[in-house]
Specification:
Number of helices: 8
Strand order of the largest sheet: 3-4-5-6-7-8-9
Strand content: 25-35%
Structural class: alpha+beta
Number of domains: 1
Largest sheet: 7 strands, antiparallel
């Protein structure tokens, strides 16, 4: 029943998005490194955001500095026990986010490090610990620029390649990605009393650099969400995307997709 509701929600989002693209003038944004751009919402993108939101609504960002530092040290100590496909020197241990997730009464803690060097913003290493601080699962998401000036996304789970995508997303600098993130985070919409047209307008607003960044975030959530589901409910491979952006910010971004 829950699966059917999710499928119906995604189908509805997709139909409304297509209707919006066909019947309304698309919103566009100019950016320094690419021309006028419009991002069209696909069913895959809607599915990814639905999975990200399933995690975000069960999660919260840890703000206490001492607690963050404790988990940071735990994660650093665990690095010798994992396989990295980026150089350990590329780990930005100062760019750390700690996110708690509660699933079926159990609490998990994600420690997320940004990955720098030749990798784009949103590249990250995510280590998932159980309530006893045992490393349960880890993912490494590497986002790079390819020869066609678009993004490649590789997602590794427990050291093995889980998914690789050659996307059609035009390459953005880290500064542009940050601008797109801020644009997405600034989306504030009332959830009450929204009809289908209000939802359509919200979807249509995810355009230009904002839309490209939204598509990039969606791309970090793998299609193979049956891989190591936490508690049989949420996709562990998508937790890195939630942590890289922040649970609260993911919730704000996907609010447009909620029916």
């Amino acid at each position: 029943m829950k699966t059917m509701k999710k499928i119906c929600k995604v189908i509805t989002i997709f139909i409304v998005a297509v209707f919006t693209v066909v019947h309304f003038s698309p919103l566009t944004v100019f950016a320094d490194s690419f021309e006028e751009t419009t991002t069209y919402i696909t069913s895959d993108m809607a599915y990814s955001f639905s999975d990200l939101n399933d995690i975000a609504k069960r999660s919260w960002d840890v703000k206490n500095e001492q607690e963050v530092n404790n988990y940071k040290q735990l994660a650093i100590a665990s690095l010798s026990n994992i396989i990295l496909h980026s150089d350990v020197e590329n780990l930005n241990v100062d760019d750390v986010r700690v996110v708690k997730t509660r699933v079926n009464g159990s609490e998990y803690t994600s420690v997320n490090f940004g990955i720098k060097g030749s990798y784009s913003l949103l590249s990250n290493l995510n280590l998932l610990f159980d309530s006893n601080n045992k490393l349960e699962y880890y993912t490494e998401t590497l986002i790079t620029r390819n020869q066609t000036n678009t993004f490649n996304i590789q997602v590794f789970a427990n050291g093995s390649l889980l998914e690789e995508k050659k996307t059609d997303i035009p390459y953005l600098t880290n500064t542009q990605i940050r601008e797109g993130l801020e644009g997405l985070k600034s989306l504030k919409y009332e959830r009450e009393n929204r009809d289908v047209w209000a939802i359509a307008g919200c979807i249509a607003a995810v355009a230009g650099v904002n839309g490209l960044v939204a598509k990039l975030i969606a791309g970090t959530c793998v299609a193979a969400c049956t891989a190591a589901p936490i508690g049989g409910v949420v996709c562990a491979a998508c937790i890195g995307g939630v942590c890289a952006v922040g649970a609260a910010d993911i919730a704000a971004i996907v609010s447009c997709f909620k029916l």
